[in-house]
Write a structure and sequence with these properties.
Blueprint lengths: L4 E5 L8 E5 L5 H10 L6 E6 L3 H4 L19 H21 L7 H4 L3 E6 L1 H8 L9 E5 L8 H7 L8 E7 L13 H14 L3 E7 L7 H14 L1
Parallel strand pairs: 2-3, 2-4, 4-5, 5-6, 6-7
Antiparallel strand pairs: 1-3
């Protein structure tokens, strides 16, 4: 779809939640295996890869932050349209039959949005612009993104999530970069803000830097969400 790869992993269990996960590189089977190791209950998984990562998962355009190779075009709203108008109908047709999202089976299956890094940023941004997802997972989310905290603290949800999972590596914020160094502070503040709004929220700190055990961290967030 639009030069992206969309893969649906059905679990075959009626009423199982469906996790949607934008990925830098497709790793759906690995994530499911990590979830299974933790005894996670059945879930459907939909992965979207082949993204223009910097461009499509950022909420608004900004200058380079991490390196001159950054291409933060701020196309998240356009990506949301792609998700809601193409990915979700396709996935639910595969999972629930020709009726797709109009079927009783689809209506009984919660949609969860889970992402890592910039996809974790997008997972938190999405509920402000769409009502498609009931729960969100932001594993090592890039909540350092310029002006993102101001946005979240001053805008209403399109649909308030029932739960929000946040995590970071304990070395991620050890940076001389003025934006990245605030990532843990931002993440903890936002988790606390969500809790005050009545959202079941948790922040977990994992060992390592941003690139340590991405698959395991994403799966850990999904398992927590499935249990809460």
């Amino acid at each position: 779809m639009e030069n992206k790869k969309v893969i649906v992993y059905p679990c075959g269990k009626s009423g199982a939640p469906t996790v949607y996960s934008p990925m830098y590189m497709e790793a759906g089977q690995a994530v499911l295996e990590e979830c299974a190791k933790s005894g996670c209950r059945p879930l459907n998984l939909v992965t979207i890869s082949g993204l223009r990562w910097d461009a499509e998962l950022t909420p608004w355009a900004c200058e380079p932050v991490l390196s001159q190779e950054d291409d933060f075009e701020g196309k998240a709203n356009e990506y949301t349209i792609f998700m809601t108008q193409q990915v979700i109908p396709f996935a639910e047709k595969v999972l629930f039959g020709a009726a797709g999202g109009d079927s009783d089976a689809a209506a009984g299956s919660e949609r969860i949005l889970a992402g890592y890094s910039l996809a974790g940023l997008y997972a938190i941004y999405a509920p402000y612009v769409t009502d498609a997802f009931k729960r969100v997972v932001s594993a090592s989310g890039s909540l350092w993104y310029p002006n993102f905290m101001e946005f979240t603290l001053n805008h209403e949800f399109c649909r308030k999530p029932l739960s929000a999972y946040f995590s970071l590596g304990d070395k991620e914020s050890r940076s001389k970069n003025m934006h990245v160094s605030k990532n843990q502070e931002n993440t903890e503040e936002l988790c606390g803000h969500y809790a005050k709004l009545g959202i079941n929220s948790i922040f977990e700190l994992n060992p390592g830097n941003h690139f340590n055990n991405a698959t395991g961290r994403l799966a850990k967030g999904i398992v927590w969400t499935m249990n809460h």
